[in-house]
């Protein structure tokens, strides 16, 4: 059922991204070693008024982690954000993903808050 025109359809927070920056690093020989994606968000916890840059995806193959590929990809995204006059960058990780939390901290991120997301189906 489609909403009536008088009922606004509100975007979910992760749908508020605007076109952003995508960076990829090739694997020696062939293939993809890792990537990062950056977007703009209207608001992010702990970042003040928006818009702010947001890391909406990041991955490096397990056998290539450690020498700085992920760091270099995020730094390229930071350059993209600075070129647009943004002063902050946000990211998130699941509470149980200790490796991601450690990687964020190694990149200079500080924890803004922890939240619990809820869901309920509509019948």
Automatic annotation (TrEMBL):
PROSITE patterns for this protein: GNAT (PS51186)
Protein name, per record: Aminoglycoside 6'-acetyltransferase
Residue ranges of every copy of the N-acetyltransferase domain listed in the record: 1-123
InterPro entries: Acyl_CoA_acyltransferase, GNAT_dom
Record organism: Paracoccus salipaludis
Keywords annotated in UniProt: Transferase
GO molecular function annotations of the record: acyltransferase activity, transferring groups other than amino-acyl groups
Lineage summary: Bacteria, Pseudomonadati, Pseudomonadota, Alphaproteobacteria, Rhodobacterales
Residue spans of biased composition, Gly residues class: 28-37
Region spans: Disordered: 1-37
Highest taxon of the lineage: Bacteria
